[in-house]
Amino acid sequence: MGPLGILGGGQLARMTLQAASRLGIEVWIAERFPDSPAARISSRSMVFERGWDDPQALDALAKLARVVTLENEFVDWRVLQGLEERGTRVRPSPTCVAVVQDKLLQKQALARAELPVPAFREVNGPADVVAAADELGWPLMLKARRDGYDGRGNALVHAADEAAAACRGLGWPDRALFVEAYVDFERELASLVVRGLDGEVVQYPVVETRQDPRLHICREVLVPASLSPKAAEQAAAISRSAVEAVGGAGAFGVELFLRPEGGVCINELAPRPHNSAHYSIEACWTSQFENHVRAVLGLPLGDAALRAPAAAMVNLLGSGSPPIDDASLCGALAEPRAYVHLYGKADNRAGRKMGHVTALGSSPDEALAAARAAAGRIRL
Fold first, then answer.
1. Distance between CA atoms of residues 362 and 65, nearest Å
2. What is the pLDDT of residue 151?
C-alpha cells in the first residue's frame, strides 16, 4: 500500500505520518520549507522551494507518491489538478477542494443540499456590505473567501461606517470577500467525519469546542458534547450530509453552531484531519489520522467509537517565550491520566499551536480537569 504523499509538513502531517507508519505505509512529506514538524521525524521529505506550483517539484512528487492528500486546504486546487494530470491520485479530489477552499462556494454547495447554514451574500466592496445589512441585519460577519482559519480572515461589522475599514483590513480589493448573517449561538460544536472511496462513512462523537476569547483559537475540546439526543443526532446527520454534499474523501472537520433554541447549523468545513478530533489518538479505537490514511488509500475504515466514557483536549498555544524546558515537561508528564503531544515547532510564536494534551475520564469535566492540570504545568 502507498506510497502516500502529504502536501504540508505541520502537526497534522506529523500525526498522519505517525499513524501511517504503524501500518507500514511509506509516506513522503512535501513542504515549502525545510525542517517542518513532519519532516523532522521522516527520512522521506522534499521541499517545494519555489512554491506549490513548482512544476519540477510536482513532477518529483508524482513519481514518488501513488496517492497524495492534504494537511491543509490552502494548496490551490489547480496544483492538485496538476498532480492528477501527472498520474497521481489526489484525495480529496481537486474538484472537492476547489469548492471547500473557497468559503463562498462551500456555503453555496451546502445551501444547494438544503443543509442549515447562516444566510450569506457575495460582496464586492463596502457598498455591498451595507446593502447586505438591509436584508440580513447588523452585525454582519465579513469573511475572506479563501485562506482564513482560527478566526483570521473574519471581521465582525456592526454598522455601515465600519464596512470600508473592515473590507480593507481583510485585504480587499485584492482579496475576495462575502458576508454572513451573525449567528447568535449557545456553543460551538464539531464533528469529524471520515468518508471512504466507496462512500462508507465513520463518524466520531460530536464534541464541544471552546475558543480562546482573545485569540479566537480553539483552546479546549470536551468529548462528547453535552447535548440533547435530538441535537446530537441532528449535528451528526448534518455533518455526514455536508461531507457527502461536497464529494469528500478522507477526514473532514465539520464546525457547527448550537443555537439557543437547540437547533444546529454549519459554520464551515475543513477537508483534512481536524484539531477538534486530536483526542481520538488515545480515546478512540481508531484515530482520525489512521482513518484518514485508510480512507484515502481505499482501505477498510476503523471503529471511531470512544474506548473510555469521556475525553478532553487542551491546546498548548505559544507565547513567544523560549522553547519548553525539561522541568516544565516533567511536570506535565506527572499527571497520570494525561497524554502530552508536542509538535516539534522551532518558532514559539504567540498563539501558535505548539502541542496538545488529551486526558480520559468518566465524564468530560473529569477529563478536562486532568488535561488542564497537565497543560497548566507546561510553560510556553
1. 42
2. 74
Count the Cβ atoms, other than its own, within 10 Å of residue 156: 12
CB 276 within 8 A of CB 188: no
How many beta carbons lie within 10 A of that of residue 230, not counting itself? 11
Distances (CA, A) of 255 to 146, 235, 286: 16, 10, 21
- For 141, the grid coordinates are 460577519
- What the block records as the C-alpha cell of 209 is 469546542
Residues 6+ apart with CB under 8 A from 252: 92, 192, 193, 194, 195, 242, 243, 269, 270, 271, 272, 274
SS3 42: coil
The answer to whether the CB of 318 falls within 8 A of the CB of 350 is yes
State pLDDT tens for residues 85-112.
999 999 999 999 999 999 999 999 999 9
The DSSP secondary structure of 104-155, one letter per residue, reads: HHHHHHHHHTT-----EEEESSHHHHHHHHHHH-SSEEEEESSS-BTTBTEE
| Under 8 Å between Cβ of 6 and 20 | no
Do the strands 264-270 and 353-361 form a parallel or antiparallel pair, or are they unpaired?
A: unpaired
- The per-residue pLDDT for 326 is 73
pTM comes to: 0.96
Pairing of strands 67-70, 4-7: parallel
H/E segment holding residue 267: strand 264-270
Q: What is the C-alpha separation between 256 and 190, in angstroms, rounded?
A: 6
Q: Return the pLDDT at 327.
A: 78
Cell 465539520 belongs to: 254
Cell of 373: 492540570
Query: What is the model's pLDDT at position 323?
Result: 65
pLDDT score, position 322? 67
Q: Name the stretches of the chain with pLDDT < 50.
A: none
